[in-house]
Amino acid sequence: MSPEFGALAGTLGIPHCAVVTMIGGGGKTSLLFALARESEAARTRVVTATTTKMLLPTPEQSRRVLLVDEDDPSWIETIREALDESPHVTIGVSRAGDKITSVRPEAIDALLRSGVADRILVEGDGAKHRHLKAPRDGEPVIPKSCAVVVPVVGIDLVGRTFTEETVFRPEIVEALTPYRRGDSITVSMIYDVLFHARGIVERAPTGSRIVPFVSYVDDDRALDHARELARRVVAERPFGIDRVALGNADPGIVRELVTPRVGI
């Protein structure tokens, strides 16, 4: 099946069989489950998971949540049986309150090799509902087998004030960049944080494709800011990035795709 079969999958360049990891802030969980719905509708067997912690999905996001023991030799077979009953299964190791806990990245690699699922969609970090973040050491957690990494950012931040309420881990942003709390958030600030040499994209596995998704493109003003960010990305090619999707993570709509041939 062609990787162009679906709106999100085709725009983000996601193969039919692949591990995809969403990172950053600004709707990555919504985007993950939107891609899962699209995959399921295309008769793709899809597993959603996290390598950190993730809110327990709603029934609309995932009808089947399965807790697995990665040290149990039959854990992959358990997932196979669940996928026979439902084409989309969310997995975790345990439940802690309203969250499910992480699956080891090595387990994701093993699950892909098994061929049990066609597509494995992973949430690789948390952002406490902020739309921009800087990573602490050790995050994001991305499986080595990941084919496509999708950094997500909310363009609605432009014009707002840089505070603890708008940016996750502001102290790290201040350590890495010249921006300080109280500054007005600009497109340049978002670029500098998102694509810093020690930012969230730096941990993408060698050989993976990086396709940023700029979310909260809700009006013409946001679209102008998103285009400004995307055009700079495809012009400067940080981390080899050659395409940027603009749209809304919820419900998973792409409004534009900016590439070196489109949008400059």
List descriptors.
28% helix, single chain, alpha/beta, disordered N terminus, globular, 3-stranded antiparallel beta sheet, 10-stranded mixed beta sheet, 264 residues, Rossmann fold
What does this structure look like?
By secondary structure, this protein is of the alpha/beta class. It has one domain: Rossmann fold, CATH 3.40.50. Helix content is 28%, strand content 22%. The strands form 2 sheets. Strands 1, 2, 4, 5, 8, 9, 10, 11, 12 and 13 form a 10-stranded mixed sheet that branches. α6 crosses α7. The longest helix is centred in the C-terminal third of the chain and has 17 residues. It starts with 6 loop residues before the first helix and ends in a 6-residue tail after the last strand. The N terminus is likely disordered.
Compact description:
This protein has 264 residues and is an alpha/beta fold. The protein has seven helices and 13 strands.
